[in-house]
Every structure is written in structure tokens, then in C-alpha cells.
Amino acid sequence: MNRHERRRLKKNNKLNTAVNVDLINGIKFHTNRNYVEAEKLYKKVLVSNPSNYDALRHLGILYQDQKNYAEAYEYFMQALKSNSRGFEVLSNLGTIHLNNKNYDLAVKCFNKSLEINNNYVPAINNLAGYYHKSNKPKKAMSLSSLALELQPNNPMAKNQYAKALVINNKLDEAIKLFQELNKDYPENDDFKFNLYSAYKENGEFEKANKIASEDFDNNFKKLPYLLSFTGDNKNKLKIKHIEYYDTLLEKNDVTPEDKIVICHSLFGYFKNNKDFDKAGKYLVRGNKSQYELKEFNLEKEEQYFNKIKKIFSKKLSFKVNKKFQGPMPIFVCGMPRSGTTLCEQILSSHSKINGAGELSYLAEESGINNLICPSEKNIGSLESVLQNNNKLSDARGQYLERLSAHGGEGAEYICDKMPHNFILIGLIKLILPESKIIYCKRDPIDNCFSLYSHKFLELSHQYSYNQKVLVQYYKMHEQLMNFWMKKFENDIFVLDNEELVYGQEKVSKQLLNFCDLKWEKNCLEFYKTKRQVRTASIEQVRNPINKKSIGAWKKYQNYLSEMVNEFN
After folding, report:
1. Eight-class DSSP state of 413
2. Whole-Å CA distances, 170 to 73, 204, 314
3. Which residues contact 393 (CB under 8 A, 6 or more apart)?
4. Torsion of the alpha carbons at 144, 146, 150 and 152, rounded to the nearest 10
5. CB within 10 Å: which end of the chain, N or C, has fewer?
6. How crowded is residue 185: how many other Cβ atoms within 10 Å of its Cβ?
7. pTM score, two decimals?
8. Of all helices (H) and strands (E), which one includes residue 414?
9. Residue 261, by phi and psi: left (phi above 0), alpha (psi -120 to 50) or beta?
């Protein structure tokens, strides 16, 4: 090595040292949420080394933390060009795709990250989070367990595992973990609101409200606080709070998703305070923004419903070769917000019935996968299953096996309360003839208003945010149910919500009789039953039956003309 080479090497070593120091200091600023200084140092590194993988990746994370997802994506892609085997950035890219609801791409990125490093906990955790959102409890549990096993002291892994416990109906264990996380990380809002949600699901509303309200005034600019704070009618907003939220609604740099949260929260607040005019304005505005995120393809959905009727108009045959020895399902279905949760709560108050909540198992085992807006490919999969006795037998067996995990001592039935299973009633009758089917219905306008006034997670019930589309969807559901009732009238119990409200004991006894079970008085006091409730009706079913929801839409009729006119 000559003198010039030695001099150049010495200069490069000094340069690398300086780069490392800047990167480390940038990460420190980033961790402390000093985004301005962190950005300066990351970019300083890139001036001397434009392809520095770590600087590119951390700059992407910084923009992601600030919800600048477009910039984040660009830097992640640059990092990947710099290092094609960068498993860390592949996981980061997956989170961007998740945020943009590109779920297939997200899963692909997480899996590719794990192909390179199968023990990379963030990718495992992110994949577990996807399965949690997708309501796939076993996959979420398996992955989050692995992440926690690899890094027992990782708070994000512990949090994801606790969330998996929730959807696997292990609420008490989940609450203990959330409590530990909140004790160790009191400033973490995500941990705080996961505990809040767990308390609500467990019927511990006072504990939940304490979390939501005690720090609200200091944190009202954080929207999760607003949503939970307004969920309790005892809480009062100050003028400065409302003015601040109204200002956000007019800002161009506030995301549509955040504006929807504000509108929905303020609708709930003014509804609780009986200012129905203000409530109606926020409701309409929020739903308009929600629907604009993704329009619902009503024409395609109508074709799907007609396809279902055509498929099941043909004579289909299947013979049950072997009777299942475990508990059988009671399917509670109907439009969402039609009283399905109330029905399940009444049933699960019986000693012979376990309530399992909303299960996606039937759709998954049938091949259709998504009950709302399935692809042509998935509809084809359903047809393929129906034409093959072996596939039908597998669908029956796999469904019952998965269902049995929700059983308990002495249970003869397990309640599967997936509302949209009304679409697959023909399949239920074919492969699960021993099961019971209960169809919940209520006044059409009451039902549609209840849907219209509820903010669902993700984009799962996108039809419900546009009044005209909602009514048309409701009528399509009615037509399909008329089709099933003609075929299976004697095998479907119709639970009319209004009849239940005005004749609780009589209708409840008829319901149990249909299930071939003896009457138990506990079913009248269903609201005292200690069980996890994860649906939109989480608070209603913790109280005795009342008439408050009947005709509730009339308080907002000035804002519901499109809906009401469609029914007239």
C-alpha cells in the first residue's frame, strides 16, 4: 500500500466514523420525537453517502411517523435498491401497504422479509397485526406467540400478543398484559386504548371511562382520546375542544380518516346531549367523507346475490356420513344492527349454549372467503366446493373442528353470530343440517339508520355510508331472505326485534324452544351474563331490553330524506 492509498483509507475511516455518529444521533433525536433535528442528521449522512441503507430506511420511518406516507414509501424503495436483501425495510414497506389497504402486497412484503430473516420480530409482529385486523384469531395468536417467545421483553410484541388473546376470547389474560404495559409505559397511547377497549368488551365501563377521561383535557388534540371520551354520555366537551375540532375539519392537511373520526365522535357527543340538529350535521358530513374513500359497487353486489340464488335454485345433494360428537352451531344472522348481538346474548345466557361471537369460518371453509364483495374467483371456489362431495365433507369437518375450540363444559351448541351468514343459508342447510338458523330482523328504517349512524372498522360495511346505496342493499338482502324462506321456512326462526322488545319472555321462550332446549330464567337477565362482547352493540347488551332504538331515526329525519324516501 503506497502513501496515497494509506492517506485515502485514513480519510474514508474518518468519514465513516462521522457518518455513524450522525446516524446514531439522528436515531436518538428521532426516538425523542425531535423530527426536525433527526431529519437534518439523516440527510447529512445521505449527502456524503447517498446509498446509505440505514439512513434511507430511518428517514422513511421518520416520514411514516409523521403520516407522510408518500415520502416514506419513496425512501423505503431507495433503501431497498441499496440493499435488495434488506429484511428490515421490506417489513417497513409492508406497513405502508397496510396503511394504503393494499393487503396482498403488505403480506407479500412481510413474508419476503421473513424469508430472509425468519426471526425478525417486527415482521412477525406486523404479520400478526394483519391477521388480527383480518379476524383470523389462530394465525394472529401463532405469530404473536412466536414474536413474544423470541423477544419476551419487547413491548410491541407483548402488545400484539395481548391483542391476539382478545380475539381468541381470552380477555382476562389480555387485560393483565395490557395493565402491565400501561404500568411500564404510561405515556404510550396505543397501550392505553387497548386496555380501554378490553375493559369495554369485558363490561367494565367505569374503568374504561376513567382511562378515556382522566387525561383528556391535556390530550384532546390526540383523536383517539376524543373518540373514547365522547363514547360516555357523562363526559362534557368544552367550547375550546369543539372549536379546535371544527377548525381541523376545514384544514386541507388533515387526513379524511381523521376528519371522519372527528365527525363520528361529535355526532355521538351531540346525540348524547340531545342536540339532534348538530348531531345530524356531523353524521351526514362524516358519512359523506367515509363513502368517498371507496365507493361501493352495488351493481356487482346485486349480481353476486343473484348468482347465489341461481346456484341454490338447483338441486344439491350431500350426505352426512358421520355425525359430529361435539356441540353444533346455532347460526344467528341478518343485517348488521338487526339485533343479532342481543339474540346471541340471550342464547349464551343458557347453560347449554356458548357464544363465540362473529366467526368467519363458514365463509373461509366454503371458499368464498369474503361475504361482502367477494371476487369472481371466490364465487367460483364456492361453486367448485358445491360440486364436489369430498370438498363439502371437508368444509363441514373443518368448520366443526374450528368451532369446537369455542366450546365449554356442558355446551350442546355454540353460537356463530356472523350477520352476513344470511348469504350462505343454503350452504348451512346442505352441510350442517343439524344446526339451527335464526334470522334477526327489525323495522327497515330503524335498521338502516342504525347502520348509517355507526362507524365500522376499516371499509367492511362501505354500503352503509350512503343512504341510497344502503337502502338498495337492504332491499337486496330482503329479496335473498325471501328466497331462503320459501325453501327453508320451517327451518329458520325469524326473530323480530320489535316483537322481542314488547314481549321479551314470550319470544325468548319461543327462541329456546326452536333450539330444542328447556327454558332457563337466566335468559331474561342476559345483561348480567359475564362474557366477552366484541360487536358494535357492546353497551346495549349490558343493559335490559328497552324501546330507545325504536323510531330513533325520527329525531334526525331532516337529514335522512334520501333514506326515508327510498322506502316510501
Report:
1. E
2. 37, 15, 42
3. 318, 321
4. 50
5. C
6. 15
7. 0.80
8. strand 413-416
9. alpha
